[in-house]
Design goal:
5 strands; 19% strand; alpha/beta; 5-stranded parallel β-sheet
Length: 107
């Protein structure tokens, strides 16, 4: 099945106060059930790769891309484009809201 869109996650959202298990839940759901291509946006790919790879954080991530190089729906800490979902963290209390917002933009 082809991807309907790309979800771009800001690198800052894989660090605390994000709960890493919630980050994994979100990326699993978006990849498996919504069939999205997911990329992590970072100016320092090596640093973030070394941080998340051993924890399984790259399991549902297609690539780490440079800031501004990928189009799609964004999960970010600030509104950068019209298709941006703003959050300060990925945690148990907001995963459902984030998935609902991502699903509505994917429709």
């Amino acid at each position: 099945m082809e991807s309907a869109m790309t979800l771009v996650i800001r690198d800052q959202l894989v660090c605390p106060p994000t709960w890493f298990a919630s980050y994994r839940d979100l990326t699993l759901y978006c990849h498996v059930l919504l069939h999205l291509d997911i990329v992590l946006e970072s100016a320092d790919a090596d640093l973030y790769y070394r941080w998340i790879k051993p924890k399984g954080g790259m399991d549902f991530i297609a690539d780490i891309v440079r800031p501004g190089s990928e189009l799609g729906t964004r999960l970010d800490v600030t509104r950068a484009t019209p298709r941006t979902i703003v959050t300060d963290r990925i945690a148990p209390e907001n995963v459902h809201r984030l998935i609902t917002a991502i699903r509505s933009l994917a429709a």
